[in-house]
Specification:
Elements lengths: L11 H10 E3 L8 E3 L4 E3 L3 E5 L4 E3 L3 E10 L5 E10 L5 E3 L6 E3 L1 E3 L5 E2 L4 E7 L8 E7 L14 E5 L3 E6 L7 E8 L3 E9 L11 E4 L4 E4 L11 E9 L6 E10 L4 E3 L8 E10 L2 E2 L3 E6 L17 E4 L4 E6 L7 E8 L4 H9 L14 E8 L3 E5 L4 E2 L2 E2 L7 E12 L3 E13 L14 H27 L7 H6 L7 E6 L2 E6 L6 E6 L2
Antiparallel strand pairs: 1-3, 2-4, 4-6, 5-9, 6-7, 7-8, 10-12, 11-12, 12-15, 13-14, 13-16, 16-17, 18-19, 19-22, 20-21, 20-23, 21-34, 23-24, 23-25, 26-27, 27-30, 28-29, 28-33, 31-32, 33-34, 35-36, 36-37
């Protein structure tokens, strides 16, 4: 027999004979690997078939058998028939094209990958090939710089025609391989998976440079996910104005590890939190407290809110002396909460305000939106309504916290400044009279002013009397400095005589009697 290998030239003189004695390479599944690998095979030559990892051919051995096919008019022709060997060693005719069949199928639609586990569902497509199967998980590659991922021991024997295999206690953001094989060394399935990201750990080191006022922290490694940024929250309390609270939220890029603290003068207390960000969200916060004098163990000044005046329980109102928060000419919000403590102030200041809801009290609500450019006295509780706010009447027996709030936003930052007012509405409480509400210094100044005005008025009246006629009178002489007790007026004919009572009498003046 003539054996022609793939790629060899067949001489013309032998082509007729070779055509009669050989079979052409079958046009089956392109994934099939034939051994020997030829373009033509001899009659009854056995060929071994194989497939890529995880697949198995319909038949592992085939051979071609040439048979005569009689055609009309006495002519005959050869026909190629391929036979396949079954598991019992019997040769049967291949009814369909031979192909690579997936031995073990893993449904990608049911694949579950989390930050700490991998779970897959499998089913056997070739029952006789699915005995003695073993599945296992392994760390597929080195960990990220600065991270140490431990090797996992995830092995399980698989039984039956279908089931579930899980790998647990895995490291986030790490590559693992899952292999299902038939003992001893036949791989039926192999997959490479990367566990999902999770939130990062908190930054371990956080410090303040006193010379620059800049806050710094150590960059986080990408152990639990790619660090895409940092979330920085700064709460500042001023020692000069203890009713003032400033909150600043910043989103910084993953390459930034320092940021200056806002300047608020000596004695300012800062509470700073830094969180790392991955695609899964923000991680735990590193918290530190600082003061502008360089100490990192401050005693933050307690909040001391400003007071209200003219509180009226019957009308449900109170007057707040408001001053614009620099810079002026910005929209201010006036928020009200029916509670008072330092936690309330910070919580109300930082949260997104809500419209008034009577059923939700004592929750915080928006009482007014003000374009405040100069100081003003604002009547809280007068019932005014507007778009998104309601200046609701105050309730007797309640303690209130009111916040004048200014928000400034940019693409990467939000700055919220609040000034707090606190007061209580006592049942029966009404505004006091003006004088009783004055301070001692103010009251004394008012009394002195009134006395001075009274004395001045008396002097004016007194001088007008002294300047009036008649010319000859005891009053006139008295106004000119003569004691009234030493004067005596008498009538002599048509004359009026005024003389002293001393002895001898002294004539002061005389004139016509009027």
């Amino acid at each position: 027999m003539l054996q022609v290998h793939k790629g060899e030239h067949v001489p013309t003189s032998l082509s007729k004979w070779s055509h009669a004695e050989t079979c052409q390479r079958p046009q089956w599944d392109s994934r099939l690997q034939l051994e020997p690998d030829q373009d033509n095979y001899r009659n009854h030559e056995e060929v071994t078939l194989s497939c890529p990892v995880g697949f198995q051919p319909s038949f592992t051995h085939v051979k071609c058998v040439r048979k005569f096919l009689t055609i009309s008019h006495g002519k005959s022709a050869y026909r190629e028939v391929w036979l396949g060997k079954d598991s019992r060693g019997r040769w049967n005719r291949t009814q369909n094209r031979v192909e690579c069949i997936e031995v073990l199928h893993v449904d990608p639609r049911t694949l579950e990958v989390s930050s700490t586990s991998i779970k897959l569902n499998w089913s056997c497509q070739v029952p006789e090939a699915c005995s003695h199967m073993q599945a296992m998980c392994r760390l597929a590659g080195p960990s990220s710089p600065g991270c140490e991922a431990e090797e996992v021991v995830g092995e399980e024997m698989l039984h039956g025609q279908e089931g579930t295999f899980s790998c647990s206690a895995l490291q986030p953001f790490t590559e693992y391989s899952v292999t299902i094989s038939r003992q001893p060394h036949t791989i039926l399935y192999e997959g490479l998976f990367k566990t999902k990201e999770t939130v990062p750990d908190k930054p371990e080191q956080l410090w303040l440079d006193p010379s620059t006022g800049s806050l710094s922290w150590e960059p986080l490694p990408s152990c639990k996910g790619e660090i895409i940024g940092y979330q920085l929250n700064i709460t500042a309390r001023s020692a000069q104005d203890r009713a003032l609270l400033e909150l600043e939220r910043l989103r910084l890029s993953g390459s930034v590890t320092a940021h200056p603290l806002p300047a608020h003068g000596p004695g300012t207390s800062y509470v700073v939190t830094v969180r790392g960000l991955t695609a899964a969200g923000a991680g735990a916060a590193a918290l530190r407290e600082f003061r502008t004098n360089g100490s990192d163990t401050p005693q933050p000044p307690a909040m001391s809110c400003r007071s209200a005046r003219d509180i009226s329980a019957s009308q449900g109102t109170a007057v707040l002396p408001l001053h614009p928060i620099p810079p002026p000419f910005r929209s201010h919000q006036l928020l009200v909460a029916a509670v008072h403590n330092s936690t309330t102030v910070e919580g109300v200041c930082s949260a997104e305000p809500q419209p008034f809801n009577a059923s939700r009290q004592p929750g915080a609500y928006v009482a007014a939106v003000l374009n405040l450019s100069s100081p003003m006295d604002f009547v809280l509780g007068d019932g005014t309504r507007g778009q998104g706010y309601h200046n609701a009447a105050l309730r007797p027996g309640c303690s209130y916290t009111a916040l004048l709030r200014l928000v400034r936003r940019s693409q990467q930052a939000e700055k919220v400044t609040c000034i707090c007012y606190s007061f209580s509405v006592v049942a029966g409480q009404e505004p006091a009279p003006l004088l009783s509400r004055m301070s001692i210094a103010t009251a004394v100044a008012v009394v002195v002013t009134l006395l001075a005005l009274g004395i001045l008025l008396l002097l004016v009246i007194f001088r007008s009397v002294c300047a009036s006629p008649p010319l000859l009178s005891v009053s006139t002489l008295h106004c000119q400095g003569v004691p009234k007790q030493s004067l005596r007026q008498s009538k002599v004919g048509h004359w009026a005589v005024i003389q002293t009572t001393a002895s001898p009498p002294f004539l002061f003046s005389a004139g016509l009697w009027t």
